[in-house]
Recover the amino acids of this structure.
């Protein structure tokens, strides 16, 4: 465990500003990179301060990888049109966001495409 | 007798006329005075840049730098869902509702459901007032600007990565409407001599959401998720 740091992702993001993010949010996610993943929704937690979505995606080797999509506050999601009545467990979605710097299957969600083709810009 | 009665009637009519005139003038000029004050009422969505980069900040004092060097994010009360307060950034980058009366302006932040009361009636801070996350705020209009002075902060974290203020902070905010009332600009001057070598000016912008609503955003400590990074 030595050499590791622990981040409380949702709460740090909740308090992030350009000044704050310099050493917390930006340390975890790489804002200069984009990753797109397609998968099936297994969980949508519509909670404050930040909602999150979990999906099962299949990688190039056919293995199922559990991804977590960090979003923003429920209020901001409502304004973006991404609510529990339009996103359900079992939906196949496509998500694009900033990947983590260390390669773990976690992203800061930027856009999501729903099964009906609607694309929602989250942040 | 008859002449005295006529005089009394004349005086009464004159008094009534003066009263009516006074009420009319008060109404007219009172309304005009109220119209001279800009109306900040509404739901405002933050449009300031977010993410990446790094906002310029004054040089830290030796004390603030020493605390920053050893800061452990897990000690941040925000992790336990304690509201970050103002002017910590969480209040500024999420939607804000302003409710304005002659005596009081309310800043209702979506983030953590935080509320600020800005007294506009000329009162001073009571002899004893407990230091708090939001401090004690009084406001006034200077031309088209709403100017807010805030003091009496409880010590706490000012920037999430571990920049502290030590209870000596005072903040001056200047807000103005732009773009025909569809935009809002705010300059936030932060003076914290125990933290910064100079005043820190943070500048923010918002746009009016004419049909906007503020959502509840109460944090439950049970929802904290700990993610290890290398």
């Amino acid at each position: 465990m030595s050499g590791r740091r622990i981040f409380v992702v949702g709460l740090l993001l909740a308090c992030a500003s350009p000044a704050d993010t310099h050493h917390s949010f930006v340390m975890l996610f790489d804002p200069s990179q984009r990753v797109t993943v397609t998968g099936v929704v297994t969980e949508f937690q519509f909670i404050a301060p930040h909602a999150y979505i979990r999906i099962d995606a299949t990688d190039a080797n056919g293995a199922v990888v559990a991804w977590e999509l960090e979003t923003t506050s429920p209020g901001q999601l409502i304004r973006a049109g991404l609510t529990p009545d339009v996103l359900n467990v079992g939906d196949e979605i496509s998500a694009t966001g900033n990947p983590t710097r260390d390669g773990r299957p976690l992203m800061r969600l930027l856009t999501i495409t729903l099964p009906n083709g609607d694309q929602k810009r989250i942040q | 007798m008859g002449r005295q009665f006529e005089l009394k009637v004349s005086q009464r009519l004159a008094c009534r006329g003066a009263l009516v005139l006074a009420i009319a003038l008060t109404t007219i000029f009172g309304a005009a005075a109220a119209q001279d004050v800009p109306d900040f009422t509404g739901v405002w969505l933050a449009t300031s840049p977010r993410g990446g980069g790094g906002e310029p900040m004054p040089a830290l004092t030796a004390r603030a730098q020493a605390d920053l060097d050893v800061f452990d994010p897990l000690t941040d009360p925000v992790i336990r869902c304690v509201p970050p307060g103002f002017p910590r950034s969480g209040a500024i980058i999420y939607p804000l509702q302003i409710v304005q009366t002659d005596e009081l302006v309310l800043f209702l932040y979506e983030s953590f459901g935080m509320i600020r009361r800005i007294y506009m009636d000329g009162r001073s801070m009571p002899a004893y007032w407990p230091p708090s996350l939001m401090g004690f705020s009084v406001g006034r209009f200077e031309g088209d600007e709403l100017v807010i002075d805030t003091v009496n902060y409880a010590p706490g974290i000012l920037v999430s990565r571990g920049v502290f203020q030590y209870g000596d902070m005072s903040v001056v905010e200047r807000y103005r409407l732009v773009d025909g009332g569809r935009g809002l600009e705010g300059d936030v001057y932060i003076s914290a001599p125990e933290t910064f070598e100079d005043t820190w000016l943070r500048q923010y912008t918002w746009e009016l959401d004419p049909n906007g609503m503020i959502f509840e955003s109460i944090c439950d400590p049970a929802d904290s998720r700990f993610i290890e990074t290398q």
Q: What stands out?
A: Chain A touches chain B through 42 residues (CB under 8 Å).
